[in-house]
Amino acid sequence: MIASLRLFSETPLGEILSLALGVIWGSFFNVCIVRIPEGQSVVRGRSHCPKCKAPIHWYHNIPLFSYCMLRGRCQACGQPISLQYPLIEAATALIFLWVYHQYGWSLKFLFSAIFISDLLVISVIDFYHQIIPDGLSLGGMAVGFIVSFLGGEVSWVQSLLGILIGGGTFFAVSFLYEKIAKREGLGGGDVKLLAMIGAWLGPQSILFTILISSALGSIVGVSLMIGRKKDLKSAIPFGPFLALAAVIYQRWGEILENLFFQH
C-alpha cells in the first residue's frame, strides 16, 4: 500500500488521480448546491433537467465530458445547461490538485479537501440564495472539531477556542449592529460559518479571516456601487468572502502572522 502511494506521489499519476477525484466530487457538489436549498435529499432521486424535468441518463451525466458532448444543452429539451455545472467540476478538480501538491496522499490531503470543498459549496449556495445551510456550517464545525483529534491543522483545544471566539465575535458584532442600526447586518449563517472556520483553523485565524474578508467585501461592494449604481443597503452575501479568506489563511497564515506580528 505504501509503495503504491509512493508511485502515485512520484509520478504524474498522482496529479491525474487528484484531478479525476476532484471532477467526480465536483459533480456531487453540484447536486448539493441545487438540492440542499430546496430541502431535497442529495443521495436519493435521479438527476433531471431543472427545466423540462426529464431524467438524465448516466452517459449524459459524466462530469465535464457530457457537458462538452451535449454542447451545453439538455438532450431532451435543448435548453442551455447552466455553466455552474462544468465550472464547479473544474474548480473542484483544481482544488484537489492544489491540495495534493501541498500534502501529497495523506490524511492532511483528505482533511483539507473536505474543508475547502465545504467552503466551496457554502459559497455558491450563499451567492445564489443568501443562505448558509446549518447542515454545512454546523456539520462542518463538528467535523473540524473531530479532525483536531486526528492530526488536523490545530489541537482540539485550539479548535474549541476557534469555535467559541469565531462564533462569539460575529455574534457580538451582529447584535450590536442590529441594536444601533435597527436592521440586521450579519446573518446567523455568517456567525456559524466563522465558528466553523475557527474549528478547522483555530482562534488565531479569526482576526485575519475577518480582516481579509472585510477587505475583499469592501472592494467588491464599492465596485458594485460604482459599476451598477447600487447603494450600501444592497445585500451582498458575505459567506463567499469569509470562505476565500479562510483558504488564504490556511495556505499563507504563517506568513501573514510573521508579517504582522514579527518582533
Description:
The protein folds into two domains: 105 residues, no CATH class; 158 residues, no CATH class. It is 70% helix and 0% strand. The protein contains ten helices and no strands. The relative contact order is 0.09.
Largest sheet: none
- Broad structural category: mainly alpha
The global form is globular
What kind of oligomer do you see? single chain
Gyration radius, in Å: 20 Å
**Terminus-to-terminus distance:** 45 Å
Helix content: 55-70%
Summarize the SSE layout with pairings.
Layout: H1 2-10, H2 12-35, H3 65-69, H4 84-103, H5 107-129, H6 134-147, H7 156-181, H8 188-201, H9 204-228, H10 239-261
Summarize the structure.
This protein has 263 residues and is mainly alpha-helical. It has 10 helices and no strands.
Name the features.
263 residues, mainly alpha, 10 helices
